[in-house]
Amino acid sequence: MSVLDLARPEIRAMQPYSSARMEASGGQVFLNANESAWPPVGDDGLGCNRYPEPQPAALVEALATLYGVRREQLLVGRGSDEAIDLLVRAFCRAGEDAILIQPPTFGMYAVCARIQNAGVSEVALQADFTLDVDTILAAVTPAVKLVFICTPNNPTGQLVPRASVEQLAQALADRALLVVDEAYVEFTDAGEASVADLIDRYDNLAVLRTLSKAWALAGARIGTLLANAEVIALLKRIMPPYPLPLPCVEAALIALSGWGQVNARNHVAIVRNQRARMQEALRQLPGVREVLPSQANFLAVRFVDAAAVYQQLLGAGIVVRDVRRYPNLGDALRITIGTPDENDRVLNELKKAAMSSRGVTGKPASGEYA
Questions:
Q1: What is the spatial distance between Cα 363 and Cα 368, in angstroms, rounded to a whole number?
Q2: Which of 189, 246, 258 has its CA nearest to residue 220?
Q3: What is the fold, at CATH topology level, of the domain defined by 260-358?
Q4: What is the reported pTM?
Q5: 3-19+54-256 domain in CATH 3.40.50.720?
Q6: What are 158-203's pLDDT values in tens digits?
Q7: 287: left (phi over 0), alpha (psi -120 to 50) or beta
């Protein structure tokens, strides 16, 4: 059985749109795409009057080298969100098929499914926010075509063991495509815990990567799907013809250059060090119930009064993520690891909040830990 047998048959059979840039095979005078013959003001030779390559060769090559895959196993688009949406549209028939997720987790998996009118099956993470492989597999019905795993998980930060990912990939063969979201994998203590090397072994495994986090390109929106070449070819059929703006491609190529990689890895090392410092400092603060272990560039923190802490930080101009709506996180905020100075500001404001709640006598406020 081919992994494509899991995809929608009408997508496999459709004739994809053929753009003018895809049909161009060389030449010096381009009159086939109804573009302007003149570049815009301030273009500086970038060529923004011309449509970009659907899959820019230089960027695809750089990303394939970075992630250790072949070019035909890689699709680059507008952040991981676009790849998630393409996967759902290609594999899930509206009103019939479904995805499976493990909440609390990244919300776009469910959003993309519901836009497609696909079902969303949920198997909650365990109390310690680890996943149970057997429970997940027991929940996979014939309707489930995509199983999403986020590692390190957002918003909790835990890493899914490689053995668990491989066990799922094996058990889901011919049943569902396993999609492993590795948006934060560069921040793990090991430095790299990707399962992309398993793609050749399991044709039903796909991996999401992004330049938004460790590579500091959130504003450029460059995300990558790594998967079996047949899956990549299928998604190209339904992808918009010109997904990547030229300035974004240029920014990505600079970030992936030799000195760009050194810069990114230096910053990742700072984040790891600051994460450890923040974990320890936060655990010592009154009003903090728990700091969840994290392998990402953020910490999920449980507070005695998360709503009050959120407002305290906001009043000081510090914006953190309120994750209390997520299952089993009703008392938590997610705090991104910033610069050392930004982290100091967070700690100082939390200390002020603790002193304020205790009052001038230092007596604990009602409901607060002594």
A1: 10
A2: 246
A3: Aspartate Aminotransferase, domain 1 (3.90.1150)
A4: 0.93
A5: no
A6: 999 999 999 999 999 999 999 999 999 999 997 668 999 999 999 9
A7: left
